[in-house]
Design goal:
The protein is an alpha/beta fold. It has 15 helices and 19 strands. Strand 8 and strand 9 form a beta hairpin. It is globular, with a radius of gyration of 30 Å. About 5% of the residues have low confidence.
Length: about 525
């Protein structure tokens, strides 16, 4: 066991006027299973890259451990090759037999190492890269969002695999994964950093207690400050009134006042003014103490939604429905039957590649949001652009019934964020969104104002996803269709969105692999 010492770490990106880290100091052990928690844009991935030595920084990072990072960058050339041929390019001196042993722990057959990497499912690709990562010895591993885009089975296998390992930092917003796989947490709070023993749930329970205490103390401070302000105001009034009596003596009315009266009144007034100054200093100290107390308090603002009401009760009707691509012998699915009625929140659930996103595209096509012939990225009613069905280069053959209500307005969030370019002003102009309102929603989702002047291609993946979510929330719609909306979204924002959907209860069809989110939000789960 060794330690990683961070001392007075300060870092900001070139051209940026805000520091990601400023005079940060802490230590962690290399045999910990460390969960890294924080809002989007707080610097989780940046911190991993600093450990890897990718950026210049002020301060010191002291470590005797060798770092390795997941996910490995796989080149376009490597995508066309079997992983067995380029594994040693990803991890120096990687031995294939060790990779095979790791794959067995992930319940995966070694034959996937000899298939073209491009043809593998996201789950199979993730398992291969994790197996390569853990095939070394005595490395301290930096694991960044390993379960994004993975289906339930792959997530469970990765979760069980990581639970049996140690010596890593895990960046994830999946609460179940953090609970199962970590024994310490490193938390990037709003203005401080803390290291704590335990998993996500134990940290969250402690944080809620701490926040509750901070709020109670804040109330006490506010009452005390109010009393001090009243006392200061009274003393100031007395001093001013007393000072006014120094001049303008009437010998008849004030016959009892002699030559020594004026100095006496001046001394008394000066004493009162000193008391006022002392009260003001105490007020300032109380305010400063209150600000320090609330510096890391998470005060999530309630989000708002404006769903439309359709005149029909049933918005989508799927009956004995199936889809097959072109010349493929095996259909994606058959015999699918369900309806989407007003107020229902339908979760589409199944393994990667089973046809969930394809079904969503077909519903959008039936509603007139996209056309099957278009190969361009067509602007949607709400948040996104997406390729038409024909972009797969083959014909879609349907069976059964898939129909939508006439005049249906849909607000859609796609998985892809790579198309986001330019600034927020241009994005709002294209989608006819009120910029000030849009920025207000982004602030409520935790984006700092400094981000609003940047181009969206420079955002983190989580910040890009919040752009799409904010645009969807501002688009009045009969039906909200969200395809994996929470990938890269931080835990705090997930809780905000959960509260929003439970409060407004919009009609939804969504795909989401976060088990806790699905269990809380879905009124019905359609299994593929």
């Amino acid at each position: 066991m060794s330690q990683i010492h961070i001392s007075n770490l300060t870092f900001s990106y070139e051209g940026s006027f805000d520091n990601i880290f400023e005079n940060v100091s802490f230590s962690v052990d290399t045999d910990w299973k460390l969960g890294l928690i924080g809002r989007n844009g707080k610097g989780k991935t940046t911190f991993l890259n600093l450990l890897l030595g990718k950026y210049e920084y002020a301060g010191t990072i002291g470590a005797s451990a060798i770092f390795d990072y997941f996910p490995y960058p796989v080149t376009k050339k490597q995508m066309g090759l079997p992983a067995a041929e380029f594994a040693d390019e990803l991890k120096h001196s990687c031995e294939l037999w060790r990779v095979v042993c790791e794959l067995e722990q992930l319940h995966e057959n070694a034959e996937i190492l000899y298939r073209s990497f491009r043809t593998l499912s996201p789950g199979e690709q993730t398992k291969i890269l994790l197996s390569i990562l853990f095939s070394g010895e005595n490395d301290f591993l930096l694991i960044d969002e390993p379960t994004n885009h993975l289906d339930r089975q792959s997530r469970e296998q990765v979760k069980a695999y990581l639970a049996g390992k140690q010596g890593f930092i895990l960046v994830s917003h999946d609460r179940d994964l953090l609970d199962a796989c970590t024994d310490h947490v490193l938390v990037l709070n709003r203005q401080t950093i803390e290291v704590q023993s335990g998993n996500f749930s134990s940290w969250w329970e402690n944080k809620q207690r701490k926040d509750q205490f901070a709020r109670a103390e804040n109330e006490k401070h506010l009452k005390e400050i109010g009393k001090l302000k009243n006392a200061a105001a009274r003393s100031s009034q007395w001093a001013e009134k007393n000072e006014n009596t120094k001049i303008g003596i009437d010998p008849v009315k004030d016959h009892d006042r002699g030559c020594g009266t004026r100095p006496y009144i001046g001394a008394k007034t000066k004493k009162m003014q000193r008391r006022v100054k002392q009260l003001e200093n105490r007020i300032n100290r109380e305010i400063k103490e209150k600000e320090e107390l609330l510096v890391d308090l998470e005060q999530a603002v309630d989000l708002k939604l404006t769903p439309l009401s359709h005149h029909k009760e049933t918005l989508v009707n799927i009956r004995d429905y199936g889809i097959r691509y072109g010349m493929a012998n095996k259909p994606l699915f058959t015999g699918l039957t369900f309806t989407v009625k007003k107020g229902q929140r339908i979760a589409l659930h199944g393994e990667n590649g089973c046809g969930k996103s394809t079904l969503i595209r077909m519903i959008l096509q039936k509603a007139g949001v996209i056309t099957p012939a278009s190969s361009e990225k067509t602007p949607l009613v709400s948040t996104d652009r997406m390729s038409a069905i024909s972009a797969r280069g083959t014909t879609v053959i349907e069976s059964g019934c898939c129909e939508t209500a006439a005049g249906l307005t849909i607000s859609y969030i796609n998985q892809d964020t790579s198309w986001l370019r330019g600034d927020i002003s241009h994005f709002c102009e294209e989608r006819q969104l009120d910029k000030s309102l849009f920025c207000s929603v982004l602030r409520q989702l935790g984006l700092e104002r400094v981000q609003f002047v940047k181009n969206m291609e420079d955002y983190s993946e989580g910040q890009k996803k919040k752009i799409l979510i904010a645009a969807s929330l501002l688009t009045p719609a009969h039906l909200y269709i969200w395809d994996e909306p929470l990938n890269y979204i931080d835990v705090f924002s997930r809780m905000q969105i959960e509260k929003l959907l439970l409060s407004y209860q919009p009609t939804m069809v969504f795909v989401e692999h976060d088990a806790r989110f699905r269990e809380r939000i879905a009124t019905e789960v359609v299994e593929f």
